Give the backbone structure.
Amino acid sequence: MVESTCEMINMQTKAKINLSMKELVDLALARGEGELASNQALVVKTGSRTGRSPKDRFIVKDATTLDQVDWNAINQPISPEKFDALWQKAIQYLGKQSIHFVSYLRVGAHEKLGIPVKIMTELAWHSLFAYVLFIRPDSPIITHDSHQWTILSVPNFKTNPAEDGVNGDAAVMLDFSKRCILICGTHYAGEMKKAMFSVLNFILPQHDILPMHCAANVGKTGDTALFFGLSGTGKTTLSADPERFLIGDDEHGWGTDGVFNFEGGCYAKCIDLSREREPLIWDAIRYGSVIENVVLDPRTKDPIYSDATLTQNTRVAYPRDYIPERIEENRGAQPQSVIFLTCDLYGVLPPVARLNTEQAAYYFLSGYTALVGSTEVGQGSGVKSTFSTCFGAPFFPRPPHVYAELLMKRLRQHDTQVYLVNTGWTGGAYGQGGQRFSIPVTRAIVRAVVNGKLKNAAYEKLPGFHLDVPIEIPGIESTILHPKKTWQDASAYEKNARILIEKFVENFKRFNVTEEIKNAGPHAN
């Protein structure tokens, strides 16, 4: 039984259950867990772990997962016995605390496939984070639903690698048979969010639903658009469009009945945030929001969003309710356009290109982009290129082809057009004279995409990458549409293009896909 395995002892006498936003904020302040900024958001620090800890993430290897999980350095196996022993130690630790916090929430805005989640946390602000990020039922009740998952978050409980079979003093463990998630040794609250994302990424393909690391919004005519991309590529920023209505900024499912959000809140990067460039996000940061690792002015308590002293991966969690332009139902119709956001450090990809279905599968599996800011422990500072399968490799337990096949199926069923949008560098490479595309330019391109202006545009082929690049877009200087024309040194462009093409080819060797998909990618002329 889930309850007996996932709790072990009765701690209800010390539990603060289903507290309100105000109660959680007040307790977090009273317990010294954070402070209020001038905008009244709760500001916290996560210590040495200011991002996810992928080397400390494990999945229980048993009959449920043995042949279903793509076991690798990201999806690391742990035995059921090790999980159970560590869970019991963590529960005993939590039971010794004066109080702890329990919330009954939900993930997945889908009538049949949404999952109830019981969240037990050591810290009040972690409970507030879950309250903000997950879906709050209309009438929160204590439930023992047979499909319920349980999250146990004990950040001050450290693991012992020798005893616990882990790699360090923290661990994030998922047990799909018992429907339990254990998070210990890390204060970074994003681990709770991404653990449940991984759960849905494992479960939903069995129900013919494509789980996606993407944002989604809807136009005034009801057209849905999806924005895929890793952190820092513009997913949250570009989906928070004053001219459109937000579904969600990060995690969605795409099934036969349309698109639905996994979450009830947003989790945006804060670095260099400004009211001018990101007005919706700026205005959403207020009482009830949780700001992680942003430095405050000691005199005014104003957040200094340009300060990366603690980390480049500064974050804010806020409820979807704080975005006025949102879809109340938290779901949308079949998407008309899909955007793959890529941050190209080499400055050789166009600001926008149209993809056919096979190209869409190729670039989806490749997940080429840049790591902008350290979203993971151990990434270090600076910017570097990466290939992250499905634009979110750390969160997808099943083999990549499972998700790629579902993507192609949905694209063909609904004649959905896919575009590759480069939010990275132009006119030169990163650190070699290039400049990053401005947010206003990228917004204009994205609006041309979602408004259907590129569907029947004239295109030309980009050599090497074999991408269809629009010849012109109203309101955009035509020169920037073809990357080679923005470089002063054409030979330098060709050199960087060859380097990137070789990286694509080498990375794609690991995928077992059809020849049509392999041939759809970049290759030397």
